[in-house]
Structure formats: C-alpha cells, structure tokens
C-alpha cells in the first residue's frame, strides 16, 4: 500500500457502512501519532492539512515529504491519503502541484454559480492526476484556521448540482460546527442529511466538526451515507492537557525531562488514545 487518493477508501466505507477518520495534522508528533495508530489497528485514514498548518510545517512539499518518509520508515501497509482541508482556489492548485493525494476546495463562501464553476475546474485538474476532490455546500459553523462559517444548512438543489460535477466526497452543512460545541447545541439535522444523501447519488458524504458530536449521532450519520468524519480539536485539547499535567507535576525539571522527546511524549500518547477511540467509534478498525 502507499499514500493514495481518498476515493477508493471512501467508496468502500460507504458501501460497507463505516466511517474513515480525517485526522488533521499539525507537526511531526501529530503525523507520527496518526500513522503508528492506524497501522496498529489496520485502519485506513485521511491526514487533513489546513493551509495554515501547511505553512506552519514549512509548505505543502514539506508536509508530503514528511508523510511519505514516515510511511516508509514505519513499513506501513494501510492506505493513507493526504488531504487539503478547506482549501482556497489558489491553495488547491498549490497542494495539487506539491503532490497531495486529495483536495478539498471550499467554495461555500462564493456565490453558488461561482462555487460550481470553480469546483468543475478543480475536479478536472485533480482527476487528471488521480487525486480525489471534496466540495462543500452550506458552510460549516465555527472557525477552521481562519475560515469562518455561520453554519448554513445546505440547499438540496445546490447539493445535487455540486455532486454532479464528479466530486469524490461531499460536505454539506447539517448543523455541525468546528471547534467545541456549545452546551445548547441542538444536534445534527438528520432530516437535512437524509435529503442530501438522496440527491447526491451515492457520493460519500463528509461530516466536519467531529469533535464533540455524540457517538450515537456519528453512527447514525454513518448509516445515512457519511463515510468521512473530520477530527481536529479533540486531539489538540488532549495534547495540551497531557502536556500541562506533565509540566505542572514538575516532570520537565527531573533529569532531562525538558528534552522535547520526553516533554512531548505524554501529549503524543494522549493523541494516540483519542485516535484509537475515534477509529473504533467510526468502525474502521481492520478495514484497511
């Protein structure tokens, strides 16, 4: 196996009724945590990379180099896709040219006709290189690396039109939001999801904002056509919490506890636990 497009893994997931996790990566520890865990559990995975995270890690080519080299170093056997998350029009082409194997073009903030035209163009460019494409209708609530969505519910006619462009996966706003969910969050709009699923012709659907959605809602969404669930905030919180506890316990002052390899270890292990829990919740263990 190798670093691949997300298309086949998502078609398989939708057909067999489980979800593939998109775990957003932010640095070396994140990539290692995801890759080692999915190999242990024999699960496919999608590594999500926002434009801001790509810049932080030294650019799209650096991200691809790290993933490919770590994939080889760990002698991995499971399918892994590297996916641009909430990409701009310009960012989509930069990631494509850098070797990303999957691209999300988020044109949800454009007037619909412009979103449609740009999606058609990007699908053609990506498919020419065997790269999968995700599009979005009805922006997802909250903020994702500077991209702010108010949580609009997707319009079924617009969903059908975007799905007809040949996209390999489709994200629709169904009441989900990025980041932490407020205490009064009313839950996912399954009525909207049912309609979206019916008008998109079997295209694997994507659930953004996977952190904080109760397991029973996630599993119901999977049963209705969701094949990709995005997780980011939960890993960041777990990493920060474990690192804080390590420092508050004074362990960074013991011997060489300040060594980054030791300082980051509790956060790394905490992330691996979250990833394991998500793969089990989504049903992708042993599906590679």
Counting DSSP E segments of at least 2 residues, the number of strands comes to 10
CATH topology: TIM Barrel
Domain unit count: 1
Give the mean pLDDT.
91
Number of helices: 12
Give the ordered list of helices and strands.
HEHEHHEHEHEEEHEHEHEHHH
Largest sheet: 8 strands, parallel, barrel
CATH level 1 name: Alpha Beta
Strand order of the largest sheet: 1-2-3-4-5-8-9-10
Rg, Cα atoms, Å: 18 Å
**What structural category arises from helix and sheet content?**
alpha/beta
The low-confidence parts are 146-151
Which architecture per CATH?
A: Alpha-Beta Barrel
What's this, in brief?
With 288 residues, this protein is an alpha/beta fold. The chain contains twelve helices and ten strands. The strands form two sheets. Strands 1-2-3-4-5-8-9-10 form an eight-stranded parallel barrel, surrounded by nine helices.
Description:
The protein has 288 residues and is of the alpha/beta class. The protein has 12 helices and 10 strands. α2 packs across α12. The longest helix is centred in the last third of the chain and has 18 residues. The radius of gyration is 18 Å and the shape is globular. The termini are close together.
Break the fold down into its secondary structure elements and pairings.
Blueprint: H1 7-16, E1 20-24, H2 28-41, E2 45-50, H3 51-56, H4 60-73, E3 80-87, H5 89-98, E4 102-105, H6 112-127, E5 132-137, E6 142-144, E7 147-149, H7 156-163, E8 169-172, H8 190-199, E9 205-207, H9 215-223, E10 226-231, H10 233-248, H11 260-263, H12 265-282
Parallel strand pairs: 1-2, 1-10, 2-3, 3-4, 4-5, 5-8, 8-9, 9-10
Antiparallel strand pairs: 6-7
């Amino acid at each position: 196996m190798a670093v691949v497009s997300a298309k086949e893994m998502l078609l398989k997931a939708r057909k067999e009724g489980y979800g593939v996790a998109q775990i957003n990566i932010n640095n070396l520890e994140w990539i290692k945590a995801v890759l080692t865990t999915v190999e242990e559990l024999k699960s496919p995975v999608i590594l999500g990379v926002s434009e801001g995270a790509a810049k932080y890690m030294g650019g799209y080519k650096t991200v691809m180099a790290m993933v490919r080299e770590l994939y080889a170093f760990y002698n991995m056997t499971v399918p892994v896709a590297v996916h641009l998350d909430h990409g701009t029009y310009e960012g989509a082409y930069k990631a494509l040219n850098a070797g990303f194997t999957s691209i999300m073009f988020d044109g949800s903030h454009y007037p619909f006709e412009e979103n449609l035209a740009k999606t058609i163009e990007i699908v053609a460019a990506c498919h020419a290189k065997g790269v999968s494409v995700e599009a979005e209708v009805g922006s997802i609530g909250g903020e994702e690396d500077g991209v702010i969505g108010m949580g609009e519910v997707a319009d079924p006619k617009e969903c059908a039109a975007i799905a007809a462009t040949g996209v390999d996966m489709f994200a629709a706003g169904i009441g989900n939001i990025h980041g932490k969910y407020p205490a009064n969050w009313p839950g996912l709009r399954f009525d909207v999801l049912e309609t979206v699923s019916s008008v998109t012709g079997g295209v694997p659907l994507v659930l953004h904002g996977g952190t904080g959605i109760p397991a029973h809602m996630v599993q119901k969404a999977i049963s209705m056509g969701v094949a990709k669930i995005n997780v980011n905030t939960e890993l960041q919180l777990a990493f920060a919490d474990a690192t804080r506890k390590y420092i508050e316990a004074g362990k960074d002052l013991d011997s060489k506890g300040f060594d980054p390899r030791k300082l980051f270890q509790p956060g790394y292990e905490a992330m691996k636990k979250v990833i394991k829990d998500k793969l089990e919740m989504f049903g992708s263990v042993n599906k590679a």
